[in-house]
Design goal:
The chain is built from seven helices and three strands, in the order H-H-H-E-E-E-H-H-H-H. The protein is mainly alpha-helical and about 160 residues long. It has a three-stranded antiparallel β-sheet with strand order 1-2-3.
């Protein structure tokens, strides 16, 4: 992870500088209460107080964010969290999914079903496409096409 200490220092300096300027402006307005009025002075102090709180809130948020992400390592779609000095816990679903096979291979002792010509003709009569018959029967596309053409020539399919 990147070293965030310079950023923290910069944010802290900016927040303290803004707060210091607001304090100086507030103190310098004390002799001018009669000129600008009490309501305007109170409104100015409220504005400066809110601005100081917003700056401090931003600083606190950045500190919270840096604290939570200090050991998080992101590279592309892989996300890991540094647990110890040399241990990492992988958080990304892509990394977990990469270690698990999507499908198990078919058992070696089973043979794919092989259909005869009557089954192919029956499926074609019921409206199945050649591609669907190929997938359902385990035959090659050429074999299914040849069977259907022969059945059309012989008058089995109308």
């Amino acid at each position: 992870m990147a070293n965030n200490k310079p950023y923290f220092t910069l944010l802290w300096v900016i927040t303290l500088t803004i707060a210091g300027v607001f304090v100086l402006v507030g103190i310098s307005l004390i002799p001018h209460f009669a000129d600008i009025g009490l309501a305007a002075t109170i409104m100015l102090y409220i504005f400066m107080g809110y601005a100081t709180i917003a700056g401090g809130g931003f600083l606190a948020y950045k500190l919270y964010q840096w604290w939570n992400y200090r050991n998080l390592i992101v590279h592309g779609e892989i996300v890991a969290y540094k647990v110890g000095s040399k241990e990492f816990e992988h958080l990304s679903a892509q990394h977990v999914a990469a270690g698990v096979p999507r499908m198990l291979p078919a058992p070696a002792d089973e043979e794919p079903p092989v259909a005869d010509d009557a089954t192919v003709i029956e499926l074609y009569k019921h409206g199945s496409t050649l591609q669907h018959i190929t997938q359902a029967t385990g035959l090659t596309y050429y074999k299914v096409q040849k069977t259907v053409e022969a059945a059309k020539r012989n008058g089995h399919i109308g």
